[in-house]
Amino acid sequence: MKDPMGMIAELFNHKVAGICRTDVDADHALESLRKGTSLSYDQVFVVRPGERHPDADLAPDWSLMIRYQLWLGGIGALLGLAVYLLFLLMGAEFAFQRWLVSISLFVIGGALSGVLLSALAMLRPDHAQYLVASQAALQEGKTVVAAHTLSASQLQQARHVLERLKVRTISTL
Questions:
Q1: Residue-wise pLDDT tens for the chain (173 aa)?
Q2: Lowest CB count within 10 Å: 49, 89, 136, 161, which one?
Q3: pTM surpassing 0.70?
Q4: Of 14, 16, 49, 57, whose CA–CA distance to 143 is shortest?
Q5: Which fold has domain 14-62+137-171?
């Protein structure tokens, strides 16, 4: 599925998890979500206790974070180079005397600034709450049904189905 929001935007902006007591309850909730909402088959799945990498299923945005860091780090490096060239054009003494050290510091400083900005861009406190609650449920031996929705209306549909089944839900904004 192509990212409709652009080069570095998140594909699934909203996530909801239903915490089920048993695998049977989770399978029933999974089928109800697939049949009772506009969610596609790959947007809804079950994460069972003891699975090897539950975080990868619950928050599949790691590639997005790496993309953010690469793009903003690269942009920062280019901006650092531009600032160095500006100092060079202004005739700053340090830009001529130790040009290799100066250019390295500006480019590396710009790249690090871009990476730090990417961390701010990816900071989603609502996602942390969703992940912590889901992980705690898995550690308690409960099964989690997760839905990664494309819109707020899909999120509401999924919440409604899960609440109708009397499943405890946790969701992002």
A1: 444 444 445 555 788 888 898 889 999 998 988 888 888 888 888 888 877 766 666 765 667 778 888 999 999 999 999 999 999 999 888 878 888 999 999 999 999 999 998 888 777 766 778 788 888 888 898 999 988 888 888 888 888 888 998 888 887 77
A2: 89
A3: no
A4: 49
A5: Alpha-Beta Plaits (3.30.70)
